[in-house]
Each structure stands twice: as structure tokens, then as C-alpha cells.
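Many introductory courses stop at the sequence. We go one step further.
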Amino acid sequence: MPNPKQRAASRARQAMYSALRRFFVGRGFEEVETPALVPHPGMEPHIEPFAVPFAPQTDIGRKRTLYLHTSPEYAMKRLLADGAGPIFQICKAFRNGEVSRGHNPEFTLLEIYRPNADYRAIMADLEEALAFVEAALLRALPEHPRRTFGQLPFERLSVREAVRKWAGVDLFEHPDANSLLRAAEAAGARVTGDGFDDVFFHLFLQKVEPNLGRERPTFLCDYPASMASLARLAPHDSRVAERVELYARGVELANGFSELTDEKEQRSRLLAEQEQRRAAGRPAFDLDERFLEAVGRMPPSAGIAVGLDRVLMLLLGAESIEEVLLFPAHEFLR
């Protein structure tokens, strides 16, 4: 049975959705809706989709496995390739096994895309949207929201700068796994795994992430190129990709890119992720050929996905995602 705090959070959630729709429609974005059930899930090495058996009861279709999407990204990029202007979507997404203080296996995403733009433009869109939402909630529910997003502009900080600031490690001086491992251990990080990305992940989570967005929200930009399979490389430095994440109060809220629009390069990166999944003993899914074909037709674009449950947690001062969901997964998983 939802408690009073959860019911208040539900009212705040609807006010947040309403404010987001007013903001984006007012700035020329079109709201779209794409399928939650898809034939090809994302290929990210550390994300597991929910598999759904499809058993046709008519002569249409064949028996096969479908998946609940982990993000509407592939479908929305196909819309961009077909000539859509700025678009956004508020939808449910699903990731198997993700249950924690900040994770629920079913969660709500805001996904926005702007054609003929780069990640700087999408950062500006998002920070203005979150400030608009906070102001709307302060008017509608003055006893609930915390002031988190009203100080514009948000901080912009490169990954290299952040790791150097809080871990004392210069990523450009440690470009391989062994070198970075020695530097991470010298900085006091406890590291497992043997690849560059694994070492970086442990160093980042232990030494950097808790410090991000403490004084005001922080856009963390320009990730190592190996950690951005859907982003284009920075024109000024191929060691980094134009990927950005948003943090506030040490919590990751959003992940976005200047989108890759090279079909051949995108295929190569997805094949590499396919091999990473095989090596880790995870299912290696078939490539989504319709998505790959669309990548080559996309205009230069930027997109970002925002975890709205976490945004709501911060706005309401909640300690756990359970507090902002009427029916959290913890109820039936215990």
C-alpha cells in the first residue's frame, strides 16, 4: 500500500511531467512515442535487457524472442534519419537486475534529440528544462521541492579534469590498462578487472563520482573514446568522445552525446561491444540493421537521456528510489 510520502511524490511526478511537456513543446520540440517491445536490444556490455518470448497465435509473425527496450534511443534516431525535427519522449525503460537505492528495473526516462546540433546545445536544453521543472514544482508544491537546478549555467567539467582534481591521476599520461591500474592503486582505489575501462570505472566510482555536482549540477564531458560507442570523437582530440553525463549531489542523472553519424564506424563499435559481451559470458545480440542504416542518414545531432526518477528524488530530498515510486520492485523481489 503506497504511503503518504509516496502519494505526495506521485503528485510531484505528474507536475514534473506536465512542466517538461510545456517546456519542450514551447521550444518547438515534438513529443513522440516509440515501442517498448523491440527485436534488438542495446549492446552495452554492462546492461541486461528483459527477454520476452513472442508466440504468435495467428499466421502473422514467427516464434522468437523480443526485448523490453533499455532506452528508446535506436527508434528515436531512426525518426531523426527520416527527417524529424527536435523530438522528446517520456517513457518507461527496463533493465534486468538493476535494483538498489538508485535503481529500479522499470524506470522512467526523458529522452531528447536535437538535429543539426552538438552536445553543447543539448546541455543547454537540459539545464533550462530542469530549472523550469524546479520552478514549477516550487510554485505547485512549495512545501516539498529542494532547490537543486535553479543555478544556471551548470558547471562544465571534462573527465580528464575531474579525475585529475579528485584522484590526482592524469588519464592522458596513463593511456593503457596497466599504467592506469598502477596510478589508480597509488591513488588508493580498489580495482578489479583487467581492461582500461574496468580500471577507469573503479577509479571513477570511488574517487570522482561522489564529489560531482555538490555545489551546483555538473555536466561531465569528453569521456575516453572507448567509453562512448554511440558518440562522435571530438574534432580537436580523438582520444576523447563528445559524451556528457549530468551529476547533481553526487548522483548521475543523464547521459548524452554528439551523435555518431558514420554507419561503418557505428557497426565497428557495436561489433566490438558484441565481443565484450561474449567475453563476459553475456548474450551477444544480433545487430539492429535498421538502426545502422539510419545512422548513416542522420543529420549531425545531439541527444541525451535523463533518469526522471532520480531527478524527482533530488527535487524531493528522497534517499531512495522507493520513496518516489507507488509500486517499487522491492515489494515483489524481497
